[in-house]
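Re: the request from the purification team.
They wanted to know what the chain is likely to look like in 3D before they choose a buffer screen. I agreed to run a prediction and write the result into the notebook, where they can find it.
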Amino acid sequence: MIILSTGFGNGTITILLILIIILLLMIFRKRYIFKGLAIVNKIILPSLIRKDLSKLKGYEKLIFGYRYWVTKNSL
């Protein structure tokens, strides 16, 4: 009990490991959410690869920016 109260016992190490695991799960969960969004975007949204970016309409620029943001965060 004295070792646990000073902060150098197994309790502290266990708490640190749990906090590290929670942090890693939060990071990986974000990546999986964006990977799922990228799959949905590929199915639903139109592909703008072959179009000239300077000639896109406003809503097409918005779609292109959204797809870029999701792709960047999924990698």
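For the purification team: The helical segments are 2-6, 10-44, 58-74.
Please add any questions underneath this entry.
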